[in-house]
Design goal:
mainly beta, SH3 type barrels, OB fold (Dihydrolipoamide Acetyltransferase, E2P), 6-stranded antiparallel β-sheet
Length: 187
């Protein structure tokens, strides 16, 4: 058991029978009342996002989570299939458990969060930035580079990303998987 002083970003806690990840937290102090601790929570086993406030020193129930490296194999009717790189066991997970499924490509390594109490996978996290091949992009108009104009480009996974005009078909680009935005061109 822990109390509100132990809250940290990324911590997973059990609240009302569900698991939530701490996205942001802080403390409110007033002159007359006791301090309050607040947190923005994102559901791990559900799709809810909530805000919760505790009195300072209240008990919270953290869940011990293990991060294991898995490799993405393929997608079929049972879901997204991953293989443990150490034991070669395969698991199939639903799309809502995957962080950014539109950027998954065959053979890519991902981190799977596993609840150590139940040994059940909770979610799949892609690396923050990944390199993808541009498979389709309209050619840029020469001389139209004075403003930060963006165009649509399709990458090898089928996802669409807004890229600068100078990015062409067949080039490698780095994409932020959290925001889905273009980061840079890769040489």
């Amino acid at each position: 058991m822990a109390n509100t002083a132990d809250i940290s970003r990324g911590m997973i806690i059990k609240l009302d029978g569900s698991l939530y990840s701490v996205v942001e937290f802080g403390e409110n102090k007033t002159a007359r009342a006791a301090a309050k601790v607040w947190a923005k929570l994102k559901g791990v086993d559900n799709s809810r996002s909530i805000e919760k406030t505790w009195n300072s020193g209240d008990t919270i129930y953290p869940v011990r989570v293990e991060k294991k490296t898995f490799q993405f194999l393929y997608k079929d009717d049972s879901g997204y299939n991953f293989m443990d790189n150490e034991t070669f066991e395969q698991i199939a997970l639903q799309e809502n458990m995957v962080d950014a499924p539109q950027f998954l490509k065959d053979g890519q390594e991902v981190a799977v969060l596993i609840n150590t109490e139940t040994e059940q996978p909770m979610s799949v996290e892609l690396p923050d930035k990944i390199v993808l091949l541009v498979t389709y992009s309209e050619p840029g108009v020469k001389g139209d580079t004075a403003t930060r104009t963006l165009k649509q480009a399709t990458v090898e996974t089928g996802a669409t990303v807004n890229v600068p005009l100078f990015v062409n078909e067949g080039e490698l680009i780095r994409v932020n998987t959290k925001t889905g935005e273009y980061v840079e061109r890769v040489k």
